[in-house]
Amino acid sequence: MQITDVRVRKVTKEGKMRAVVSITIDDVFVVHDIKVIEGEKGLFIAMPSRKASDGEYRDIAHPINSETRDKIQSLILEKYQEVASESEDEE
């Protein structure tokens, strides 16, 4: 599995969410609405989720193992940092 595209849309409103990301896998499958969140220990990603009837949020799509999650998170956060530094350069 290869992440062949990462698209970052920065969020400018207040709060802990910094961006919404879409990734393309192997040029054939897209996952939208991955969130970049600023947590107490730094940036992390939250997979797309939906509120269930019991009020809990459940991931709609997510990696099966931690190795894949780490790979996706690393690529997304690397791209986010690139976009963030480019927008700082423009200011």
UniProtKB/TrEMBL annotation:
It comes from the Bacteria. The keyword Cell cycle applies. It holds the Pfam family SpoVG. GO terms for biological process: division septum assembly; sporulation resulting in formation of a cellular spore. Belongs to the SpoVG family. Keywords: Cell cycle, Cell division, Septation. This is Putative septation protein SpoVG. Could be involved in septation. Gene3D superfamilies: Stage V sporulation protein G (3.30.1120.40). The keyword Thylakoid does not apply. NCBIfam families: PRK13259.1.
